Amino acid sequence: MLMDGFDWDDGNWPKCGKHGVARNEIEEIFSGIVSIFPTPGRDESERRMMAIGKNDSGRAVLVVFTLRERNGTRLVRPISARFMHEKERLHHEKQIAGAEENSAARKR
Fold it and tell me: Residue 22: which domain range?
């Protein structure tokens, strides 16, 4: 995902930090392999998305975020973040594996 940085302030950081995920752990997932999905059922002026990725220690993190443009830079503004539950993580990994298998089968 193309971005120039993160938009942190007193409005979004407390909401993200209350689930025990540190700022650097949130930022780490965007520097690796990340799955991004639209959030369902949102009717807002600002489009929200979910990102699922792993921090540097390998823990799965789910981040709800929006993108903001400021002075020609594209910023990720985290809205909420938490570590994924085991059941969620396993489901996500199964979905990724299935998508990779389907992609490999189409290439043959």
Answer: 5-107
